[in-house]
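Question: does this match?
>
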Amino acid sequence: MGSRRLKIAYVLNTYPQPSQSFIRREIRALERQGVEVLRLPMRASAQALVDPGDVQEAGRCHYVLQAGAARLLWALVATALRAPHRMCCALWLVLQLALAGGGIIRPAIYLLEAAYVLGVSRRERVAHLHAHFGTNAAAVAMLCDALGGPGYSFTTHGPEEFDAPHRLALGLKLTRARFAVAVSSFGRSQLCRWAPFQAWSRIKVVHCGIEPDQFPEPGALPTGGLKLVAIGRFVEQKGQMLLIEALADAIRDVPGIHLTLVGDGEMRGALEAAIAANGLSAQVTLTGWLAEADVRAALARSHALVMPSFAEGLPMVVMEAMAAGRPVLATYVAGTPELVLPEDTGWLVPAGDVEALTNALLRLAAVPQDRLTTMGKQARERVLERHDIDIEAEKLRSHFAAAIAPRRQEPEEPSAL
């Protein structure tokens, strides 16, 4: 690379979204370290963006599908004419994706997107592609590489990738990638299941991170009854329905508990019905999606975060709660036990066990304020040590540099765009 500035393209599916602040945080940390990042999402989010950072980020994106079908098709034809041997390789990969995923239409669309990304990458002199999630975006990056574009890497979060490794052709993507990232040691173990042993050294752990300066020393805990907050998409895997059931049981013994649910999603109607059916309308508040500053304010008004998930990667909201000096009640899933230490920074219960969750809520309600404060301080120290975004972004930057360095520089071909 010589003295040229390191330039990376982030290939994403739908970005930014309210639940993806961790990607924006990572990109901006890389930029602070001198990495130039081109944002190449396939499409914009259909959800309203409430956080000013997301709104600003959307304005910096080059949306692939906004180019239109004609330009994508022309990019594919031009690539085929210029490098037919590479197109044959890419078509073979499309076939592998089709056989894994049960259809040809989606992989064919990924190929169109990849040809367009190839043209943009050459025009912008991108040295490497990085995708977030081992799903559609990783497929586009892999196909772009096959067409003669930059090498690629991708970050897996879970649980989507771990739920359907065969359908996503995760092993194929891992084998061809310069490296792959997991956000926890648990995640790395899952990737090792689908990669040949020889590729294990290319599977790295880079945590998602928080910006410490956004989390000043926490103030005093709120007074009065136990105040809990749960943050996340309203979907089955997040376990909010189980939390409502456990809360209804716990309130019979401790009437003063209040729960704030931050987020939204397809299960909102079902959650509202469950809250009403259990007579909890006065004990549960639904806020919808909040800007990051408002999420921090919601954490400040709580005694603890509850994360009753059935499946996860390593939730950002757990990191944010701990950085805000709040202990966490979560489930023994995925990477969460790597961060939440029982009776030290929080509590862990088996996923899906409503009785265990109810009992944990009752134990939490009985913990003295000074003990909660101590646990919150220990939680804050642990997350700041392990999840500082600038430290994690430096790890990622070094992996990018190492992946780019051995690649033999090929002559630039004229862009098809």
The chain has two domains: 7-209+389-404, 213-386.
